Amino acid sequence: xxxxxxxxxxxxxRRDELTARDAELLATLASLGELRDANNDDEHDxxxxxxxxxxxxxxxxRRETQAELAATDAALGRxxxxxxxxxxxxxxxxxxxxxxxxxxxxxCIVCAERTSRR
Length: 118
Fold this sequence. Notes:
With 118 residues, this protein is an all-alpha fold. It contains four helices and no strands. It folds into two domains: 1-82; 85-118, no CATH class. It is 68% helix and 0% strand. Helix 1 runs antiparallel to helix 2 (51-81). The protein is elongated and about 50 Å long. The two termini are 32 Å apart. The mean pLDDT is 88. This is TraR/DksA C4-type zinc finger protein.
């Protein structure tokens, strides 16, 4: 079983990784944005993906990264508040195995299954 100190280390490492990924994505998107603004007609480039298509793909990945970062920050907040590992819906403990597999989990497996069926 993992203790709260280990969960915090794991979450902080993940937060650092996500922050670095977000910065990389932001820099790449800025570069692609400059190409898009230059009105380059890459839509017919047979050698690669169009700039606008690549920008859309990376923007989607960045949104997912930011969502995961927000979930990680929320989990760290629950740790600081002493509520980490307690289901925000029913108040029951979240199984350690679930937290090990998904350290940002805020719902126990029963509540998560109920939510996914809706």
